Amino acid sequence: MTIFSGMQASASALTAGRLHMDVVANNIANMNTTRGADGNPYRRRYVVQAERTASFDSALARETDKAAPRAGAGVQITAINEDTAPFQIKYDPTHPDADADGNVRLPNINLLQEITDMMLATRLYEANVTAFNAGKAMAQRALEIGR
Known about the structure:
Shape: elongated
Helix content: 40-55%
Number of domains: 1
Number of helices: 3
Structural class: alpha+beta
Strand content: 15-25%
Order of helices and strands: HEHEEEH
Largest sheet: 2 strands, antiparallel
Radius of gyration: 22 Å
Distance between the termini: 25 Å
Protein backbone atom coordinates (compact mmCIF):
# COMPACT_ATOMS: atom_id res chain seq x y z
CA MET A 1 0.00 0.00 0.00
CA THR A 2 1.50 3.31 -1.06
CA ILE A 3 0.90 6.80 0.17
CA PHE A 4 -1.14 7.44 -2.95
CA SER A 5 -3.56 4.48 -2.59
CA GLY A 6 -6.30 6.59 -1.05
CA MET A 7 -5.91 9.23 -3.73
CA GLN A 8 -6.10 6.56 -6.45
CA ALA A 9 -9.29 5.14 -4.91
CA SER A 10 -10.82 8.62 -4.77
CA ALA A 11 -9.76 9.33 -8.35
CA SER A 12 -11.48 6.16 -9.56
CA ALA A 13 -14.61 7.17 -7.66
CA LEU A 14 -14.49 10.62 -9.27
CA THR A 15 -14.35 9.05 -12.73
CA ALA A 16 -17.23 6.71 -11.89
CA GLY A 17 -19.23 9.57 -10.37
CA ARG A 18 -18.83 11.69 -13.47
CA LEU A 19 -20.08 8.84 -15.65
CA HIS A 20 -23.01 8.27 -13.28
CA MET A 21 -23.97 11.96 -13.57
CA ASP A 22 -23.67 11.76 -17.37
CA VAL A 23 -26.02 8.75 -17.50
CA VAL A 24 -28.58 10.46 -15.25
CA ALA A 25 -28.39 13.66 -17.33
CA ASN A 26 -28.95 11.59 -20.49
CA ASN A 27 -32.02 9.96 -18.89
CA ILE A 28 -33.48 13.36 -18.03
CA ALA A 29 -32.72 14.70 -21.51
CA ASN A 30 -34.57 11.77 -23.12
CA MET A 31 -37.55 11.86 -20.80
CA ASN A 32 -39.95 12.63 -23.66
CA THR A 33 -38.25 10.61 -26.42
CA THR A 34 -41.01 8.38 -27.76
CA ARG A 35 -39.12 6.91 -30.71
CA GLY A 36 -35.50 5.85 -30.91
CA ALA A 37 -33.49 4.19 -33.66
CA ASP A 38 -35.21 0.87 -32.91
CA GLY A 39 -38.68 2.45 -33.06
CA ASN A 40 -39.28 2.10 -29.32
CA PRO A 41 -39.28 4.77 -26.64
CA TYR A 42 -36.05 5.54 -24.82
CA ARG A 43 -35.29 3.11 -21.98
CA ARG A 44 -33.85 4.42 -18.72
CA ARG A 45 -30.22 3.49 -18.19
CA TYR A 46 -28.35 2.96 -14.94
CA VAL A 47 -24.74 2.44 -13.95
CA VAL A 48 -23.47 -0.76 -12.32
CA GLN A 49 -20.37 -0.31 -10.18
CA ALA A 50 -18.06 -2.84 -8.53
CA GLU A 51 -14.98 -2.77 -6.39
CA ARG A 52 -11.85 -2.43 -8.50
CA THR A 53 -9.56 -5.36 -8.07
CA ALA A 54 -6.14 -4.68 -6.69
CA SER A 55 -2.89 -5.29 -8.51
CA PHE A 56 -1.24 -8.71 -8.46
CA ASP A 57 1.44 -7.55 -6.02
CA SER A 58 -1.04 -6.30 -3.43
CA ALA A 59 -3.27 -9.37 -3.86
CA LEU A 60 -0.27 -11.67 -3.31
CA ALA A 61 0.84 -9.73 -0.25
CA ARG A 62 -2.68 -9.84 1.17
CA GLU A 63 -2.94 -13.61 0.64
CA THR A 64 0.45 -14.34 2.21
CA ASP A 65 -0.32 -12.21 5.27
CA LYS A 66 -3.97 -12.87 6.19
CA ALA A 67 -3.70 -10.59 9.23
CA ALA A 68 -2.83 -7.56 7.08
CA PRO A 69 -5.63 -5.04 6.73
CA ARG A 70 -7.25 -5.00 3.32
CA ALA A 71 -7.24 -1.67 1.55
CA GLY A 72 -9.60 -1.09 -1.33
CA ALA A 73 -8.38 -0.26 -4.79
CA GLY A 74 -11.28 1.99 -5.70
CA VAL A 75 -14.30 1.47 -7.90
CA GLN A 76 -14.93 0.61 -11.53
CA ILE A 77 -17.92 0.75 -13.83
CA THR A 78 -18.83 -2.77 -14.92
CA ALA A 79 -21.86 -1.96 -17.09
CA ILE A 80 -24.46 0.55 -18.14
CA ASN A 81 -27.72 -1.38 -18.23
CA GLU A 82 -31.19 -0.58 -19.50
CA ASP A 83 -34.06 -0.62 -17.02
CA THR A 84 -36.58 -3.29 -17.98
CA ALA A 85 -39.51 -1.57 -16.26
CA PRO A 86 -42.54 -1.19 -18.54
CA PHE A 87 -43.03 1.98 -20.54
CA GLN A 88 -45.51 4.57 -19.33
CA ILE A 89 -48.76 4.81 -21.31
CA LYS A 90 -50.41 8.16 -21.95
CA TYR A 91 -53.60 8.82 -23.88
CA ASP A 92 -52.88 11.43 -26.55
CA PRO A 93 -54.51 10.69 -29.91
CA THR A 94 -52.91 13.80 -31.47
CA HIS A 95 -49.36 12.55 -30.85
CA PRO A 96 -47.57 11.29 -34.00
CA ASP A 97 -46.50 8.09 -32.19
CA ALA A 98 -49.98 7.24 -30.88
CA ASP A 99 -51.30 3.76 -31.62
CA ALA A 100 -54.77 2.97 -33.03
CA ASP A 101 -56.32 3.47 -29.57
CA GLY A 102 -54.67 6.89 -29.11
CA ASN A 103 -52.13 5.65 -26.54
CA VAL A 104 -48.52 6.78 -26.60
CA ARG A 105 -45.71 4.79 -25.01
CA LEU A 106 -43.40 7.07 -23.04
CA PRO A 107 -39.97 6.26 -21.60
CA ASN A 108 -39.82 4.43 -18.26
CA ILE A 109 -38.22 7.43 -16.55
CA ASN A 110 -39.36 8.82 -13.20
CA LEU A 111 -38.10 12.41 -12.89
CA LEU A 112 -38.10 12.30 -9.08
CA GLN A 113 -35.90 9.19 -9.11
CA GLU A 114 -33.51 10.79 -11.61
CA ILE A 115 -33.20 13.98 -9.54
CA THR A 116 -32.54 11.90 -6.43
CA ASP A 117 -29.89 9.88 -8.30
CA MET A 118 -28.26 13.10 -9.50
CA MET A 119 -28.20 14.54 -5.98
CA LEU A 120 -26.65 11.34 -4.63
CA ALA A 121 -24.03 11.27 -7.40
CA THR A 122 -23.22 14.93 -6.73
CA ARG A 123 -22.79 14.39 -2.98
CA LEU A 124 -20.60 11.32 -3.56
CA TYR A 125 -18.50 13.28 -6.03
CA GLU A 126 -18.04 16.10 -3.50
CA ALA A 127 -17.10 13.60 -0.76
CA ASN A 128 -14.47 12.01 -2.98
CA VAL A 129 -13.02 15.41 -3.88
CA THR A 130 -12.69 16.08 -0.15
CA ALA A 131 -11.04 12.69 0.43
CA PHE A 132 -8.65 13.26 -2.49
CA ASN A 133 -7.69 16.69 -1.17
CA ALA A 134 -7.12 15.24 2.32
CA GLY A 135 -4.78 12.61 0.86
CA LYS A 136 -2.96 15.28 -1.10
CA ALA A 137 -2.55 17.43 2.02
CA MET A 138 -1.19 14.44 3.97
CA ALA A 139 1.35 13.73 1.23
CA GLN A 140 2.44 17.38 1.22
CA ARG A 141 2.84 17.36 5.01
CA ALA A 142 4.92 14.17 4.80
CA LEU A 143 7.25 15.85 2.29
CA GLU A 144 7.67 18.81 4.66
CA ILE A 145 8.97 16.58 7.48
CA GLY A 146 12.46 16.50 6.00
CA ARG A 147 12.87 20.26 5.95
